[in-house]
Amino acid sequence: MENKINAFHLKMIAIIAMLLNHIGSGFHLNEYSEPLFFFTELVGKLTFPIMAYLLVEGFHYTRNLKKYALRLTVFWLISIYPFHLLFFQNYPFDPTEFVNNIFFTLLMGLLLIISYEKTKSTLLHVLLVIGFSLATILSDWQLIGVLLIFGFYRINNVTLKKTIPLLYTTAFLFILLMIVYFISPSSVPWYEFLSVFGILGTAPLLLAYNGQRGYSPNWVKWGFYLFYPLHMIILILIRALM
């Protein structure tokens, strides 16, 4: 396959996949059509792996890591309430149901690889990986999200780095669902099991990635970040009108 996909293309795919996923979850499509909901979940699984890979790319090429981390922090904070209102529908905000959004997971992944670069101790490296992973235990893509980012960062072989992290992430989520299923079979519907394999659909996209930024004016750069809170606010308003 020729490498014809650039970072702009990956961003657009991630945005479309995210929108479909959040429509499915935010509007509880599983209550109306399980196959349709399965489709939104399956496609939605492309979103975070693409964002995680682009985060590592940003780490390698950004001129200012502090500004990069600050940008993630700002969008994590401004997305907290829209995220909870869309997926938990708790108004006013209920701290007992607090779950961090995807920008927090990305931020923890970035801070991990920054810290990893600055230290040499193997023991400290292990503790950093464990610590930053545990920090996301109450976050979207909990635990495994940071490990996915770390795999993209740590594996040097170009082909393996675009496949191995996706494989162990899929295996982790599938095994986790199996454990939950054995404890409470009714709590894990069929579409939850099958949708995790959507993660593997990221592999051909990353393998076709040519390492180029592509179309990247400032409005695209900032629009990619702004899309996350803005589309959730729009979906919340549409749901309220319905």
Automatic annotation (TrEMBL):
Superkingdom of the source species: Bacteria
Write out the entry's keywords from A to Z: Membrane, Transmembrane, Transmembrane helix
Name the InterPro entries for this protein: TraX
Q: Name one Pfam family in it.
A: TraX
Q: Does the keyword Transmembrane helix apply?
A: yes
TM region positions: 12-30, 36-56, 68-86, 98-116, 123-153, 165-183, 190-210, 222-241
Keyword Transmembrane helix in the entry? The reply is yes
Query: Could you identify this protein by its name?
Result: Fimbrial assembly protein fimC
